[in-house]
């Protein structure tokens, strides 16, 4: 299965733990208030997607509250990346989406960086692509401590585009299970 055009969360897990991560994510989304999340496999080992009716800010706040109560809450999920837009993997399409929407997410005086993650797509050259996207954003670039990150997750023929604060990419420690 390829990334559907209808997802707003990308989840990383360790290879071969996708089923466990899906169950964990379903439970978490229920706790956060989504009674009917749609969770899907991807053709990429260690990745799953979800379509939730929860707004990004609400979802992240709820997950952070869960983690305050129990920092080891997640057993299988390693990373959660909210996705704002999905589209075909095409330089021009991605560039137009960023150009059209970045002002909704990045304030006039805020700095940014572009974070490109490519999987199974060699046609896109990293430097050319980043340059094409950056030309459409009037803000200053800050590669070390940006106010916002434009994250582009290329997953074969589809990609997800996110406009995030650095703390909105949630990372969790790998658990070690001993028998």
Structure description:
- The protein is of the alpha+beta class.
- It has two domains: 9-83, Alpha-Beta Plaits, CATH 3.30.70; 85-164, VC0802-like (2-Layer Sandwich), CATH 3.30.2130.30.
- Helix content is 30%, strand content 27%.
- It has helices at residues 18-32, 56-69, 91-105, 126-134; strands at 9-13, 38-41, 47-51, 77-82, 85-88, 112-119, 148-155, 158-164, 170-171.
- A five-stranded antiparallel beta sheet has the order 2-3-1-4-9. Strands 5-8-7-6 form a four-stranded mixed beta sheet, with helices on one face.
- A hairpin with a 5-residue loop joins β2 (38-41) and β3.
- It is globular, with a radius of gyration of 16 Å.
- The model has no long low-confidence stretch (mean pLDDT 90).
Pick out the low-confidence regions. Answer: none
CATH architecture field of the largest domain: 2-Layer Sandwich
The secondary structure category is alpha+beta
Structurally, how many domains make up the residues? Answer: 2
Shape: globular
Overall CATH class of the largest domain: Alpha Beta
Mean pLDDT: 90
């Amino acid at each position: 299965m390829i990334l559907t055009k209808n997802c707003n969360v990308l989840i990383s897990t360790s290879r071969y733990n996708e089923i466990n991560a899906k169950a964990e994510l379903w439970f978490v989304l229920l706790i956060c208030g989504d009674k009917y999340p749609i969770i899907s496999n991807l053709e990429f080992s260690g990745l799953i997607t979800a379509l939730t009716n929860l707004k990004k800010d609400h979802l992240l706040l709820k997950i952070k509250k869960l983690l305050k109560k129990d920092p080891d809450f997640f057993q299988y999920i390693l990373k959660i990346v909210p996705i704002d837009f999905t589209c075909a993997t095409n330089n021009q399409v991605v560039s137009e989406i960023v150009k059209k929407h970045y002002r909704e997410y990045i304030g006039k005086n805020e700095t940014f960086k572009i974070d490109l993650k490519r999987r199974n797509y060699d046609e896109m050259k990293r430097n050319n692509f980043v340059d094409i996207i950056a030309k459409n954003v009037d803000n200053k670039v800050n590669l070390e401590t940006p106010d916002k990150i434009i994250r582009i997750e290329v997953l074969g023929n589809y990609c997800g585009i996110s406009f995030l604060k650095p703390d909105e990419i949630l990372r969790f420690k790998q658990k070690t299970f001993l028998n």
